[in-house]
Design goal:
Structural class: alpha+beta
CATH superfamily of the largest domain: Butyryl-CoA Dehydrogenase, subunit A, domain 3
Strand order of the largest sheet: 1-4-5-8
Bound molecules: flavin-adenine dinucleotide
CATH architecture of the largest domain: Up-down Bundle
CATH class of the largest domain: Mainly Alpha
Largest sheet: 4 strands, mixed
Helix content: 40-55%
Order of helices and strands: HHHHHHHEEEEEHEEEHEEHHHH
Length: about 375
Amino acid sequence: MKLNSTKQIRESVALICKKYGDTYWRALDKEKKYPSEFVKEMTDSGFLNVLIPEEFGGSGLGLIDACAVLEEISLNGAHAGACHAQMYVMGSVLRHGTKEQKAKFLPKISAGKLRLQSFAVTEPNSGTDTTNIKTFAEKINSGWKVNGQKVWISRVEYSDLMLLLARTLPIEKVKKKTDGISAFLINIHDAKNRGLTVSPIESMINHHSCQLFFDDMVIPKESLVGKEHDGFKVIMDGMNAERILIASECIGDGRYFIKKATDYANSRQVFGRSIGQNQGVQFPIAECHAKIESAALMVEKAASLFDANEKCGPEANIAKMLAADASWKAGTVAMETFGGFGFSKEFDIERKFRETRLYQTAPVSRNLILSYIAEHVLKLPRSY
Ligand SMILES: Cc1cc2nc3c(=O)[nH]c(=O)nc-3n(C[C@H](O)[C@H](O)[C@H](O)COP(=O)(O)OP(=O)(O)OC[C@H]3O[C@@H](n4cnc5c(N)ncnc54)[C@H](O)[C@@H]3O)c2cc1C
């Protein structure tokens, strides 16, 4: 399908979401299942390839349009976390891949024949402190031999490809701690037969995160993305897009909570009148609305700068923090508005409340964003 305008994208995504209503997401959440049908329909309809250029079979649209897709998914009560990475992980291949890698993978990703929606960075002892990763890829004749462990790697079981970050030089042997790290594009199915073990983690949301164990896993030479020992750059380049996209998801969540809370406040009768008549109930909802709408402007600004190929690090980080804070606050207010019924699975507030909480922590915590703003924007002294 040819997608022409953001408005048209929103309307079409909303139509798909309507087919997968609250009961669909509630049942998946209960059974910890992956929304395969929803993700397939989103892929087949071309909504997850909006950032892939037309020459590789994608829609070749901008981040503004990609944001509209994720925002609309969240706004309709669905879980965008199930498919958001399909949009941005491929950016590393697009920007840093060889001609052969792009020709081999991007058209298949665009067509939905291959899924690249797994991004393996975090380890048990290095989440925030990314350069401290210990997973090591040792150079051998045929490529590299990988040993180590990753944790919290989402959607591995529902992806064909994974971008893996590993050390290729020990941290003690490099000048800058960001040096000596490489990025690899891994075929997950092959890797499972060659030393990769995948073990699901039980968590508070239905996010399909796993632990990965690499035991002498051999990867071929053509797996390298970007320059050897310079893989930190490969992932850093994609991080602004990731932050802006996650922020748009938060805007959708926030608007979802506000709509739910408003409807409930209008209909719930206590002491013979609607609870929404009490300013103690309406002011928190109104405040959340103001916060979400102002965060949305920041997301739009960051996405516009990104699409214009301008620097957008501060804007992307600020947008992510403001949007995540606003959606988390809106979730809390929706829980409050629903009273005891907020705890009932039937109303979906507690599910979305759990889901939106993730964005306080991942893919980057708000402390680390504040640290970035303090040190890189305001030029305050480094703290670590
Ligand atoms: C559901 C889920 C899905 C995820 N999916 C993925 C994935 O697909 N791929 C992937 O690679 N990772 C994934 N992650 C990992 C996520 O990115 C990390 O959990 C996150 O970066 C935080 O790392 P950590 O848990 O090790 O926290 P830590 O680094 O141990 O930090 C703990 C706390 O201390 C704070 N802190 C640490 N250092 C400082 C400092 N210098 N100043 C101030 N505060 C500080 C942090 O803000 C945080 O609140 C996922 C996590 C979750 C929960």
